[in-house]
Amino acid sequence: MTRRQHVPWKAAGSASEQEPSADDVVRETGWVFNNVTGSELSLAEFVTTGDRETLAYLTAFGLGGVDMPSMSLVEIGSGIGRMTASFSRMFARVVACDLDAAFLERCRETVAQFGEVHRLQTSHVADGRSLQLADASADLVFSYITLQHCHRDDALALVREALRVTKPGGYVVLNFRTWVPQDVLLWPAGKISRLTWRLPSIGPKIAQMRLPARLGWQANRLSPAEVMAVGKASVTGARIFRSPKHRPFHATGTTDDVFEGVHRSHWWLVAERR
Ligand SMILES: C[S@@+](CC[C@H](N)C(=O)[O-])C[C@H]1O[C@@H](n2cnc3c(N)ncnc32)[C@H](O)[C@@H]1O
Question: Does the CA dihedral 22-28-32-36 come out positive or negative?
Answer without folding.
Answer: positive
